[in-house]
């Protein structure tokens, strides 16, 4: 067997990542692109990111994201006023801009994160110049149309047109990815694509802090955009149905156009004093909110993966989630949390109550199961897989479908938690 030191090191790559949304935008696609770019820089690659300008200022300059410096090419953008903050690159300029940037940067690979504007221009330029092209889909048309002025009667046709546009751009790519197997099947069902890779967005578990101290309050947390698609009204209605003796507190971390409506709903439901709208916060404050929470709740029915749910699991939280799209991929019913029928506030209330009233040993077992399941989504595996795709190597998708534990294994874990809990109690008394 040859010594590993004899294996030649692979040359760093020049990677051009194209996004329709990137930091400071707050959403899953923007966060993934940011972490991907930073992770690649940390591995020694030369990374360039093309994204709409976050203001009227546009051009190319160095920015630091996730602690890593990278070259940003901010395209002239316009504000999309039906949305609370979204800006978009000018679509009639994107092909010329894409061609100019590809010729200037001379990347080894182009990786677009959205087909709508930036990805369309960069994908055409990459094909023209014979550059390897990778596409990743984070898009669901149903989420996008709510921020348009399209009349309801035209929505089904608009969704078909959006899928057709996605098909055109992604067909140009040599490889197409999306975060989960369910999301891949969803994309294949709505386009002519096949063999879509399921590659997790990934998470660095070292950035999150589980809390195993005895519970002193019942705190439900949600992290994400405060928009209609997240179905936060279902969560608030569920909390209003719960036993007042539980004194449930809700912390909603994030902001969006639906916040005022939800604040009014808490007044209507008589739970205003129990709900804290934190708004947009720093990464440190977000992680602190997850650490102090008792359970994470998400009622959304349109998640292709849900980075926020993975962050909660990395913080050791049980999760109560809608049984829809990719959430069952992360939540093993009865093991690290519970699933509920989408839109059913009464069932969500019952599941949250079940978590918050568990015996301490069973509650700790759920926390540890969240940690076990999310380990499969380690960011380093994600980065290594994309590196291989960029080089044109044969790729086996990382296995992130963690098997459910047997009944015997679950019982053993709960007994182990009970033993650990008793040991800590005895140590505290001494």
Architecture overview:
This protein has 430 residues and is an alpha/beta fold. It folds into two domains: 11-198, 3-Layer(aba) Sandwich (Rossmann fold), CATH 3.40.50.2000; 206-376 and 407-415, 3-Layer(aba) Sandwich (Rossmann fold). It has 15 helices and 16 strands. It has helices at 28-42, 94-105, 118-128, 141-144, 155-171, 181-190, 232-241, 259-269, 283-292, 307-314, 327-330, 345-356, 360-374, 379-391, 407-429, and strands spanning 14-18, 46-52, 59-65, 68-75, 77-79, 87-89, 109-112, 132-136, 175-178, 197-198, 219-223, 249-253, 275-279, 295-298, 319-322, 337-340. An eight-stranded mixed sheet has the order 3-4-2-1-7-8-9-10, with helices on both faces. It has a six-stranded parallel sheet with strand order 13-12-11-14-15-16, with helices on both faces. Strand 9 (175-178), helix 6 (181-190) and strand 10 form a beta-alpha-beta unit. Helix 10 (307-314) packs across helix 13. The longest helix has 23 residues, at 407-429. The model has no long low-confidence stretch (mean pLDDT 89). Keywords: Glycosyltransferase, Transferase.
Features of this protein?
six-stranded parallel sheet; 41% helix; 430 residues; Rossmann fold; eight-stranded mixed sheet; glycosyltransferase activity; Glycosyltransferase_grp1; 15 helices; alpha/beta; 16 strands; Glyco_trans_4-like_N
The overall strand count is 16
Shape: globular
The top level CATH class name of the largest domain: Alpha Beta
Seen as an oligomer or otherwise, the chain set is single chain
Largest beta-sheet characterization: 8 strands, mixed
> By helix and strand content, what is the structural category?
alpha/beta
């Amino acid at each position: 067997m040859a010594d590993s030191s004899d294996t030649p090191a692979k040359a760093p790559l020049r990677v051009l990542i194209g996004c329709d949304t990137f930091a400071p935008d707050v959403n899953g696609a923007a966060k993934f692109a940011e972490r991907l770019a930073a992770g690649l820089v940390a591995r020694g690659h030369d990374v360039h990111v093309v994204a709409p300008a976050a203001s009227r200022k546009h051009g190319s300059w160095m920015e630091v994201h996730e602690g890593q410096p990278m070259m940003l090419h901010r395209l002239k953008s316009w504000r999309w006023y039906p949305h609370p903050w979204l800006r978009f690159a000018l679509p009639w300029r994107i092909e010329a801009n894409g061609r100019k940037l590809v010729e200037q940067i001379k990347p080894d690979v182009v990786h677009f994160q959205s087909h709508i504007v930036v990805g369309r221009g960069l994908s055409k330029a990459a094909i023209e110049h014979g550059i390897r092209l990778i596409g990743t889909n984070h898009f669901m048309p149903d989420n996008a149309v709510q921020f348009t002025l399209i009349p309801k009667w035209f929505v089904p046709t608009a969704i078909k047109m959006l899928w057709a546009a996605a098909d055109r751009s992604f067909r140009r790519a040599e490889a197409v990815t999306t975060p989960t197997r369910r999301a891949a099947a969803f994309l294949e069902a709505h386009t002519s694509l096949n063999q879509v890779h399921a590659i997790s967005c990934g998470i660095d578990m070292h950035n999150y802090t589980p809390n195993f101290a005895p519970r002193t309050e019942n705190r439900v947390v949600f992290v994400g955009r405060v928009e209609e698609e997240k179905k936060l009204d279902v969560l608030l209605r569920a909390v209003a149905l719960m036993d007042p003796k539980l004194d449930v507190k809700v912390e909603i971390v994030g902001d969006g156009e639906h916040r005022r409506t939800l604040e009014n709903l808490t007044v209507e439901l008589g739970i205003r004093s129990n709900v804290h709208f934190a708004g947009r916060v720093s990464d440190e404050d977000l992680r602190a909110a997850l650490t102090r929470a008792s359970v994470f709740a998400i009622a959304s029915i349109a998640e292709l993966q849900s980075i926020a749910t993975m962050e909660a699991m990395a913080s050791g939280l049980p999760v109560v989630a809608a049984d829809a799209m990719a959430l069952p991929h992360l939540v093993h019913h009865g093991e690290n949390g519970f699933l509920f029928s989408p839109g059913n506030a009464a069932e969500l209330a019952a599941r949250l109550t079940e978590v918050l009233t568990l015996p301490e040993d069973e509650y700790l077992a759920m926390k540890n199961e969240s940690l076990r399941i999310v380990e499969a989504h380690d960011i380093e595996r994600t980065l290594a897989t994309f590196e291989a795709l960029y080089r044109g190597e044969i790729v086996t998708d990382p296995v992130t479908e963690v098997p459910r534990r047997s009944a015997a294994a679950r019982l053993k874990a709960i007994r182990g938690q009970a033993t650990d809990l008793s040991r800590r109690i005895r140590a505290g008394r001494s």
